[in-house]
Design goal:
The structure holds two protein chains of two kinds. Helix content of chain A is 0%, strand content 56%. By secondary structure, chain A is mostly beta strands. The N and C termini of chain A lie far apart (37 Å). In chain A, the strands form two sheets. In chain A, strands 2, 4, 5, 9, 10 and 11 form a six-stranded mixed sheet that branches. In chain B, strands 2, 4, 5, 6, 9, 10 and 11 form a seven-stranded mixed sheet that branches. In chain B, strands 1-3-8-7 form a four-stranded antiparallel sheet, with no helix packed on it. Chain B starts with a strand and ends with a strand. In chain B, strand 9 and strand 10 form a beta hairpin. Classes of the chains: A mainly beta, B mainly beta.
Chain lengths: 110, 111
């Protein structure tokens, strides 16, 4: 079951904040966040496990609401290097499958 | 460590031709995956292998076959390529509850 990401795209000015959401209709064991630059492979950002704490480092953090089966990625004081497409991937309990959403394209302008 | 490697990096096929995409990982991971990525569709799982000797279908398995040759290698085969299989193919691997690591991708064009 593919998770749903929102928004599909967002344009920011350098220094602004953004939130990207990921929701699933199924009970989740974990949520994985990746960023992909054009022409490159997705790069791992962080993983949130069921029962775990909010993760993050520096200006990128994420939360996982188990009751709502939702995760949010928070980007604060955005930098030009944050531009790219962000994907959430979800894993249901007992499964080895990581299923990705369609992505959120983030553009940070000077 | 090379991580996850894929060959070839780019391939052009004619409709009806066959080919095998190769993937190898040197991280001693149990699970390996094949995804395809098309504009606006995100990453869609084709097949995966939770351990050596096992394979399972993902979201879009039609037109593909896979082989988990050993713990390191997981290949994807197109028996009779179609233009709809034009895409970028990514292989990934992971160990237990950790996250996946992706290879650099193979860009396939089917004419």
């Amino acid at each position: 079951q593919q998770p749903v990401q929102s928004p599909q795209a967002v344009i920011l000015r350098e220094g602004e904040d953004a939130v990207i959401n990921c929701s699933s209709s199924k009970a989740l064991y974990s949520v994985h966040w990746y960023r992909q630059k054009h022409g490159e492979a997705p790069v791992f950002l962080m993983i949130l496990l069921k029962g775990g704490e909010q993760k993050g480092h520096e200006k990128i953090s994420a939360s996982f609401n188990e009751k709502k089966q939702q995760s949010s990625l928070y980007l604060t004081a955005s930098q030009l290097s944050y531009s790219g497409t962000y994907f959430c991937g979800t894993v249901q309990g007992g499964s080895e499958k990581l299923v990705f959403g369609k992505g959120t394209k983030l553009t940070v302008n000077p | 460590n090379a991580g996850v490697t894929q060959t070839p990096k780019f391939q052009v096929l004619k409709t009806g031709q066959s080919m095998t995409l190769q993937c190898a990982q040197d991280m001693n991971h149990n699970s390996m995956y094949w995804y395809r990525q098309d504009p606006g569709m995100g990453l869609r799982l084709i097949y995966y292998s939770a351990s050596e000797g096992t394979t399972d279908k993902g979201e879009v398995p039609n037109g593909y076959n896979v082989s988990r040759l050993n713990k390191r290698e997981f290949s994807l085969r197109l028996e009779s390529a179609a233009p709809s299989q034009t895409s970028v193919y990514f292989c990934a691997s992971k160990r237990d509850t950790e996250t996946q690591y992706f290879g650099p991708g193979t860009r396939l064009l089917v004419l």
